[in-house]
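Researcher: Batch entry, complex prediction.
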Amino acid sequence: MTIEHHPPEELLARFAAGRLDQAEHIVMSAHVSMCVRCRRFVAAFERLGGAALEAAEPAALAAGAFDAVMARIGGGEAASPAPAVPRPRRADDAGLPKVLDLYDIGRVRRIAPGLSMRPIMIPGAGKSRAFLLRSEPGTRMLEHTHTETELTCVLEGSFSHEGGHFGPGDFDLGDDTIDHRPIVGADMPCVCLVAMSGKLRINGLLGRLIEPFIRL
Amino acid sequence: MSVLLQRQISGHARRSGSIAKRWPRVKERPEIAVDWAGLIGQIALRRDREAYRRLFEFFAPRIKGYLMRTGSSEAEAEEIAQEAMIALWRKADRFDPATSGAVAWIFTIARNLRIDAVRRGRRAERMLQVVEAEYLPEPVESTESAFSRSQEAGHVEFALQRLPAQQSEVIRLSYLEERPHSEIAELLGIPLGTVKSRVRLAMSRLRELLDVLK
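Model: Structure tokens for the complex:
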């Protein structure tokens, strides 16, 4: 499996700094977990993050913080930290990136023939939402534009558009400058993890007619 | 610009003398007098409280300061700094000096805890132990041997040592300290346009350096 499409450095940088919005963070995390090349870039950023930490202006901790921490370490807390309760995996979760274990995933919702989605439940209000998008082999999506940005990481299967062919692990960034009409690979369904902010704009008369019914 | 900010900037410049001199190459940084990795090793090995105190005294206030500089409230920064120090104690045996620098490792602990604090929102049960799953390679361990992991770390080190100091400095100021370009321009005494182009150049240079090694 060769990953050919990577996120822009800017996004990797903000991911490494831990400053992306949750939905975007999830998609970046999925890509980085599959991509050695980007993992290396993130690791370099973490080194620079260490440098930033060393150089940071110290802010005094609350009085007694050290003792409080020692008490928590020395107390029962150290021996048995609360066991993590990962989300129970369902049969159709096989192959989903690990980061999704930290979230609940909603029920499958049909969007259009050959196209369905499952929302990732993200606590709090972020600017973007995340979902798993599944399309049947050969599905041709309507030509569309995004009002803001759309981050996509392919988990299974593939799709193509003017920007190239996207297989497992590949990352695609859509924004308002890109009009595209992806076609899903013919051999198997395509499952993508998507973070979307803003709205989908579907081009053409048909698109404008059905747009109100497509809720992503 | 507020007086406070100005004071911060001049304070920063004063502290660091020439910033360029202070951050020549990551490797040649003069202040690495303390062997942080060694202290972490002492905690792993024999729960050494004195080693822990030294780490705590240096890092806890810096974690708090760093988080406050990059968007956390004081209360949140305090809490995460304490949690990070607790995590450092508990996970000390998982720190591998061959694959990560001690300071970078502490940075990732604090960063992951902040991400998790946002995520937790109302669901405290899924915290702490899973934060390191943030982006573990999948499948974990089976394809990546300890050897290849330390080789990876070597590649990262190689690239950072070759990244010109001016470039790693703007990356740090811009993305990790989240200073606006205008502030960086003032701090470094260079035009705004130069900051922008230097950031761009630094990012692509870092990519290139990392890509040289397969």
